[in-house]
Amino acid sequence: MVGVKDLVLRLLSQHPEGVLQSSIHKAIGTSKSRVSEVLRELEVAGVISRVKLGNQYLVKALKPYEGGGVKGRVVRLGVVWSSEYPFITPFAKELRDRFNYVLDVTVYSNALRATWALVRGEVDLVLSPLITQLYAFSLTKALRIVGGGAYGGAAVMEGNPRCPNVVASSELSAMDACRAAALGEEVPKGLKTVYFSRPGDAVRLAIEGRARYFVVWHPLTERLSLLGLKHVALCKDLGITYCCTLAASVRLNQSLRRRFALTYSKAIEEFAKEPGRWVEWYSAKVGLPVDVVRRGLGMYSYRSYLDKALIGRMLSRVGLQLPDPNAALNAIEEFT
């Protein structure tokens, strides 16, 4: 089994800005007392620091984490920063209870970084936009798409009409597909597109009034609403019927891909019975407040399977041209 100390250090390495001590036990699935004991040891050894913030402690790593014993039965999952994936909580539970795997989650700022981490072998699985995965498959053949996921939660938003006629989106992603679908309908044709690489960059563009339209996902939609932007259209109403899906590295043998795919599908079905039950662990893992993730539950819909016909219609709707025209058929690996 992976030790608590290694799990704590890996979590801190993923959040260099620090993690609230009160959330660590939820993120790694152990008791508060055991976490306190490990933190005291690490603090005495000069590996971490704890800074008091009000009645809580912010924990930061002082030394880079080099992996230690986190090997063997650890499944590395990359996700894009979002409220979209609380169903990975029952996925983690199933992997642990049935197969003695630990799910190690890394959060990426955008779709390209997350998907390319899979291509480079930095993670074993990734939840990233289907669009991005199809591009990556076309170019590298380094992954297979093995499970469904969530859709909805994304929108086209409009700011001050006096702002420049620019639309801001993330690149080669579901947002980019939504932007393409909105052109000529909700968004005028001929607008310049500006791509942002981090959620904070989108907020900055809005604050500085450098774009009129934004195509963003939850919880970015909340942040832009607070700045006065209004919803123009929901991406799901523009034909974006799949957002993020599960892709697996081809470095995993087919037997393992099948195991992970079936376990993942079962986890989404379990999650759908009582979504609110699974929020806290996910909140701690991705660094989003629990209430934000809970609000996201009402914005996303979940589909555990891959429907090739539905995917084909979505690609036609947005006019997506892939380097490999057959990518949508060849990248998808279905298991029963």
What layout of secondary structure does this protein have?
Blueprint: H1 4-14, E1 19-20, H2 21-28, H3 32-44, E2 48-53, E3 56-61, E4 74-80, H4 88-99, E5 102-108, H5 111-119, E6 125-129, H6 130-140, E7 143-152, E8 154-158, E9 166-169, H7 174-182, E10 192-195, H8 199-207, E11 213-217, H9 220-226, E12 230-234, E13 244-249, H10 254-273, H11 279-286, H12 290-297, E14 300-303, H13 308-318, H14 327-330
Parallel strand pairs: 4-5, 4-6, 9-10, 9-11
Antiparallel strand pairs: 1-3, 2-3, 6-13, 7-13, 7-14, 8-11, 8-12
Helix pairs in contact: 2-3, 2-11, 4-10, 5-6
Keywords:
336 residues; alpha/beta; Arc Repressor Mutant, subunit A; D-Maltodextrin-Binding Protein, domain 2; 3 domains; six-stranded mixed sheet; five-stranded mixed sheet; 14 helices; 42% helix
